[in-house]
Design goal:
Chain lengths: 290, 328, 246
């Protein structure tokens, strides 16, 4: 049985993890909700973000790397979109398979450049080490990560709520009157959203890098929770993604405390339970995606 | 009698069977070997069964690798812990695939499209983690080694040793014939037609009286049974069951085989696709150690340029209604 | 003799009440038309009757039996079939196969995995019968999407017919038809009315007035008037709702 400070500490870990999962799932959800594409390469783009951070940080420092890595990954997303756009409107399998192939290729390129062994990267000095809340120490970096994740999620929210692009994305690709009235080129918007989704994956990779070991298979560790979060939260729902991410994180964190061997599969059990009770996810609505 | 012979000759099935009958003797001429032939047969069973779900019912499962793996592990666990045999472990492997398919299918039966695909991925990942973590049963990272191909036969009559790869080839070939005929009957049955109706217009299918979730569930379970069978045969082939059989790439591979071969519009597509896939994989891996890169790009190219696959040029042909009236 | 009756039938979508406490009774062997402005709730009403949507309140009685909440595939078996406003056929199948799918269901062969479909003589024979009855003989092998729009509309109804219903719900059967084809469709509907009970949603008032035994007028989810064609023509509330369309 964990002691009270241990319990709180693990719970916080779960929340921090949940925020990270929500951030990862956010980019995935944008692409899924707006273009109806299951972007299987989302995980590997997350990995690329981490690898870029690993390579660039020693060269240019933490903050520049935090800005540059997502930018490069975002551009990778833009390029990827050129291939993926052929699958718009078709059977969802096509987009999924396209991005599946891309994921394989991108993972192999990582192996070619960086090899297959894992790397670790330390937290940046200014947030390294523990911070003490009375008797309880807690990782400064985790708090920093949580703060960054919240900031980024808020930025996405602002984008969706306060910009005309966001209005269109929320309305889905089908309200053509609104699109024409706002004078926005849907094709360019789709490319942008794909790049944005990729960039979000990339930035999540950068900030997760000091916590997770950097290896070619880390993409899978990011994409699978993203699937689960989106199913639990409801496809196409912003708050569903946030809520789903937190739930998955907390449930995983708790299981690490009490049943560590099941910690990797609890999120699937949670998902199964939720779709039995609410088949479309917590905040999902009947969508075209069914 | 003569008309029957003509009908049989015109039918593609016998030719496919004859081809695979002589394949082991053809392979050495193209630089192949019998082991590859067995792989093609096993993947064909996997892909044909999978196509019941994908090509005929129109449901995009991206997690069937899990059921393939379940079959492999079920066979391994049976053989290593319960009974040293061939038929019972294979049966158990098949049944295990069907059983877990039936359970997962309950969650999926009322879904379709992207939601369906997402759920299949999640469930398959869950099974993967279980196989990785439950090392007392599955051997975890190391998997289950020491799976044996035991002699097959009728006690008192004959015994054929299966260690010889050629013998094992024909054993699998025998099962391949049974599976192919069975799947052929299923997809051409009233049930099979209903699956297609669901693929084309599930709403109307409901409106004319079909309890579509039930049909989808049965289709899913059947496809998982064949996956389980293929998986157990694969474990016998490799004399081991590693969790890589459950890896998400396996799910992508079987879809690739179906699509590449044209399984969406032709019954034999999955078989052709399996052959092409195995050949490609073998060729590519000898070219470079980073063949996954080429494979991934090739994967994308196929989806972009020939999504309907090679055999889409030979779309399914059904007998015309007039023939039904005049000359049954 | 009542064939179908709704009691207090209600359906809401969020804040919108699409079907508002509707009490409607349909007589057997009559042709009842349901008319009303767009958005009046007519198609939603059909969806409730045919099991495509679940009512929030109220009940539906078919031949005096409570069928509220039954799913669509069960309601078809009980004897209610429908056609669709937006064409809803199996475009990739041939005309014959379209009809056959419905006949196969009706005869209960759906779950046969191990018989060959072509050997189901009763299914094939009945399919030919129906194709003849709907006047599309000779086009059996045409893929549905290649049929003319008018033929496809007839096919949509034919599929519903193949389910051997006692009650047939037709949702805007003349929608999109050219005036030439409309006559054909109207004759077809009247021929159906000889043996079946029909409920038809229709916009074209001249058709409604000529074919209906009974008319119900829906407006904002409520039945605002019911009666014979003559009575409805003279009803002022109806005239208002239609803004002078009569």
């Amino acid at each position: 049985m964990p002691s009270f400070p241990e319990f709180i500490s693990q719970l916080l870990n779960g929340l921090v993890l949940g925020l990270l999962y929500a951030l990862i799932a956010m980019g995935f959800m944008l692409i899924l909700g707006f273009m109806e594409v299951i972007n299987f390469s989302h995980g590997i783009l997350f990995a690329w973000g981490a690898y870029f951070a690993f390579t660039l940080r020693p060269m240019i420092g933490f903050w520049p790397a935090l800005l540059v890595s997502p930018l490069i990954v975002g551009i990778m997303g833009l390029i990827l979109e050129f291939a993926v756009r052929r699958s718009y409107g078709k059977d969802p399998l096509f987009g999924l398979l396209l991005t599946f192939g891309a994921a394989m290729a991108l993972e192999e390129i990582i192996r070619m450049i960086w090899g297959s062994i894992g790397y670790t990267i330390a937290a940046p000095k200014f947030v390294a080490g523990p911070i003490h809340f009375g008797l309880m120490p807690y990782s400064k970096y985790r708090l920093f990560l949580a703060g960054l994740a919240i900031l980024l999620i808020v930025l996405v929210w602002l984008f969706l709520e306060k910009t005309p692009y966001g209005a269109i994305i929320k309305a889905g690709a089908f309200d053509s009157e609104m699109v024409m009235a706002l004078g926005i080129d849907l094709r360019k918007l789709r490319t942008l959203v794909f790049g944005l989704g990729a960039a979000l994956a990339g930035v999540a990779g950068v900030i997760a890098a000091p916590l997770w070991s950097i290896k070619p298979t880390m993409g899978v560790e990011a994409i699978m929770p993203a699937f689960v979060v989106v199913v639990i939260g409801g496809v196409g729902s912003f708050w569903g993604t946030v809520l789903g991410g937190l739930m998955v994180g907390v449930v995983t964190g708790i299981s690490v405390m009490f049943m560590p061997r099941t910690s990797q599969i609890v999120m699937y059990i949670l998902m199964a339970i939720i779709i039995l009770i609410r088949p479309r996810g917590i905040m999902g609505e009947k969508s075209i995606l069914e | 009698m003569k008309r029957t012979i003509v009908k049989v000759i015109r039918h593609p099935l016998p030719w496919v069977f004859i081809f695979f009958l002589i394949l082991p003797y053809l392979l050495p001429f193209v630089g192949g070997y019998t082991y590859l032939g067995v792989e093609v047969l096993i993947w064909s069973i996997f892909a044909l069964g999978f196509n019941i779900l994908l090509g005929y019912t129109g449901l995009p499962s991206f997690g069937h690798g899990a059921f393939f793996g379940i079959g492999a592990f079920a066979l391994g666990i049976m053989q290593l812990r319960v009974t040293q045999g061939m038929w019972i472990p294979i049966l158990v492997g098949t049944f295990a695939g069907a059983f877990f398919g039936a359970v997962v299918g309950l969650f999926l039966a009322k879904k379709r499209g992207i939601y369906f695909a997402l759920l299949t991925i999640a469930f398959s990942q869950m099974f993967w983690f279980i196989s990785w973590g439950w090392d007392r049963m599955t051997g975890g990272e190391d998997g289950l080694a020491g799976i044996n191909r035991l002699p097959v036969g009728i006690p008192g009559l004959f015994r054929i040793d299966m260690e010889d790869i050629l013998h094992f080839y024909y054993f699998v070939y025998f099962l391949f014939i049974i599976c192919t005929i069975l799947i052929w009957i299923i997809v051409h049955s009233p049930f099979g037609r209903t699956l297609q109706a669901i693929r084309y217009n599930e709403v109307r299918a409901k409106a004319i009286g079909y309890n579509t979730p039930l049909y989808k569930w049965i289709s899913f379970t059947l496809s998982c049974a064949f996956s389980g069978l293929a998986g157990s045969l694969y474990a016998l082939l490799r004399n081991a069951a590693f969790s890589d059989v459950m890896h998400w790439t396996q799910s992508g591979n079987v879809i690739m085989m179906v699509l590449l071969g044209g399984g969406l519009t032709n019954f034999f597509g999955p078989i052709l696709g399996s052959g092409v896939f195995i050949v490609l994989r073998d060729l590519l891996s000898t070219l470079t150690e980073h063949w996954l890169l080429i494979y991934g790009l090739l994967f994308m190219a196929v989806i972009v340029f020939i999504p309907e696959g090679i055999l889409s040029f030979f779309k399914r042909k059904e007998p015309k209604p007039e023939l039904l009236v005049s000359g049954k | 003799m009542e064939i179908i009756r709704t009691e207090n039938l209600t359906k809401r979508f969020g804040g919108l009440v699409a079907v508002d406490h509707v009490d409607l009774m349909v007589e057997e062997n009559q042709l009842t038309s349901i008319i009303g402005p767009n958005g009046a709730g007519k198609t939603t009403f059909f969806n409730l009757l045919s099991g495509f949507m679940q009512a929030d309140e109220g009940k539906v009685y078919f031949k005096k039996r409570d069928i509220t909440g039954h799913p669509s595939h069960r309601i078809v078996k009980e004897g209610i079939a429908r056609s669709f406003q937006l064409l809803n056929i199996f475009n990739e199948l041939t005309l014959f196969e379209n009809i056959r799918m419905a006949v196969q269901a009706e005869k209960g062969h759906g779950l046969e995995l191990l018989s060959f479909i072509n050997s189901l003589g009763d299914v094939n024979d009945r399919s030919f019968e129906i194709i003849k009855a709907i006047g599309l003989e000779g086009k059996e092998n045409t893929t549905a999407k290649n049929l003319s729009y008018g033929d496809r509309r007839i096919l949509d109804i034919g599929i519903a017919l193949a389910s051997n219903p006692k009650l047939l719900l037709l949702d805007e059967p003349t929608s999109g038809l050219a005036s030439r084809e409309t006559g054909k469709m109207t004759d077809f509907i009247q021929s159906l009315a000889r043996d079946l009970t029909l409920v038809v949603i229709e916009h074209d008032m001249s058709i409604v007035l000529s074919i209906s035994d009974h008319i119900a007028v829906l407006h904002q989810g409520r039945v605002i008037a019911e009666g014979t064609p003559a009575e409805i023509q003279q009803n002022e509330e109806v005239q208002e709702a239609y803004l002078g369309g009569l």
